Amino acid sequence: QVQLVESGGGFVQAGDSLRLSCAASGGTFSMAWFRQAPGKEREFVASISKRGRSTDYADSVKGRFTIFRDNAENTVTLQMNSLKPEDTAVYYCAASTSYSGSLKSRYDYWGQGTQVTVSS
Fold this sequence. Notes:
This protein has about 120 residues and is mainly beta.
């Protein structure tokens, strides 16, 4: 059984940093983070391949967010720096057995989400 458990969300000020983690069980996957703000579609944030050799980022977070993984611990982390109010959203961890990229329809498993709120 596959489980994804996110942690690390919270309330921060603009310019602060926050780190999100996703612990995966039940297999080895390509992983990604998506986010969904109130009234908006869920959007891609970042992805990383199974071995961590390939990463991809949404333009809106390039240079500020970094995704990395620890395969020994089966965790994926999203380091978020220079946070902006527009980064406020529920952040979701996603896993795919065969795909690494920005298409949310290609991800097989999802976590429950963790709230990130950035105050100005």
